[in-house]
Design brief:
It is built from 16 helices and eleven strands. It is an alpha/beta fold. Helix 2 packs parallel to helix 16 and helix 7 packs across helix 12. The protein is globular.
């Protein structure tokens, strides 16, 4: 019965996509914003299933991939400080900076700990009061509430050896910057379910209102993504633009108000640099003055770091903007692979290059 339902769903969406392709005289271009969606699409064969009628391209939804090269270099500088234990998520270890990586610094003796949760880093700080712990805050709205909680908890417990290097990013301003790029042309957007769990779908309604592009918030099962594609195609057919929630089991229009309250208790909006975009106003979060004791940049000021371009030949910046796909890169699967990555899109578990390398385009 379930298999029949899936077959009927695929047939329905394929039929709709074929009729739209015939009407428009071209493939329909849909961007999946979330890196986890990119993995699901590649791993389950959805991209190839719809390849004749729908072009699915990856967007700026991988937090490691969009971290600017200059910020990667700053992370490595913290790792090189003798008095600091740098704590991070595992994806950051192999990301190449201009001259080094955390993996290379750890091999040279730097104290670098990998954790799955910021709470684990906080507990590590409590258990190691003689070490200065700097946690690298990489992520979107999904992970930011956890870091806000850690800062609040560190203050409550009067921990003096825990601080955060905040490189967090907010997706709605980046989507606006993306859609303002005259080189970008999209027919629809699959919005990130995890992020929308926190922000709510209303945070993305400007895409439908201002750019007339239909969107659907999707879950992470292959059938969720196929349903989202079908919903977007149906809106295109009706020539209407709206944001629809296909992930109703977790996403509400208003989002998670408790999580948003925690975020804006600790952080305030700031400008942030994104790989491929440059600086996007209001797309970052900095720690508020009252929590500056836990701000690594205030506690351990870094020397001036120059902005540097991506490594020669690497096109990760164009890939996170959807201007190119991984197989457009001359380095892809030749000199750049998961063991010897040239850029973050090949390193991250949510990176488009890693998805294409492991599962095909």
């Amino acid at each position: 019965m379930v298999d029949e339902w899936v077959k009927d769903l695929i047939d329905e969406v394929l039929s709709l996509s074929r009729s739209l392709k015939e009407k428009l005289g071209r493939r329909i271009k849909i961007m999946e914003v979330c890196g986890t969606h990119t993995m699901v699409i590649s791993k389950s064969g959805i991209r190839s299933l719809f390849s004749e009628t729908v072009e699915l391209i990856s967007g700026p939804g991988c937090p490691v991939c969009v971290t600017d090269q200059m910020d990667i270099d700053k992370i490595i500088l913290y790792a090189q400080m003798d008095n600091i234990t740098l704590c991070t998520f595992g994806d950051m270890i192999k990301v190449p900076g201009s001259l080094s990586s955390l993996e290379k610094e750890r091999a040279k003796g730097a104290r670098i700990e990998v954790f799955y949760s910021p709470s684990d880093a906080l507990n590590y700080a409590k258990d190691h009061p003689d070490e200065e712990i700097v946690f690298v805050g990489i992520g979107f709205e999904t992970t930011i509430p956890l870091l806000a909680h850690c800062i609040l908890e560190a203050k409550r417990q009067r921990l003096q050896n825990f601080s955060l290097f905040s490189l967090h990013k907010c997706l709605p301003p980046a989507m606006k910057a993306l859609l303002d790029d005259p080189e970008i042309s999209l027919d629809g957007l699959i919005l990130p379910g995890h992020v929308c769990t926190i922000t709510g779908s209303r945070a993305f309604e400007f895409i439908a209102d201002d750019y007339r592009i239909p969107c659907c918030v999707s879950g992470f099962e292959p059938t969720d993504v196929i349903e989202a594609i079908g919903i977007i195609l149906a809106h295109i057919k009706r020539e209407e633009a709206k944001v629809e929630i296909g992930y109703k089991r977790l996403v509400k229009p208003e989002g998670n108000l408790t999580a948003k309250r925690a975020i804006y208790t600790v952080f305030e909006p700031s400008d942030a640099r994104w790989r491929g975009f440059g600086e996007i106003p209001g797309s970052g979060l900095k720690i508020k003055e009252e929590y500056r004791d836990f701000d690594a940049e205030a506690k351990f000021p870094l020397p001036e770091v120059e902005s540097v371009p991506e490594r020669k030949g690497c096109i990760c910046g164009d890939i996170v903007k959807g201007k190119k796909i991984p197989t457009d890169c001359s380095l892809f699967s030749k000199v750049c692979n998961p063991k010897e990555p040239f850029g973050p899109c090949m390193v991250s578990q949510e990176g488009a290059c890693a998805a294409y390398y492991n599962y095909g385009g």
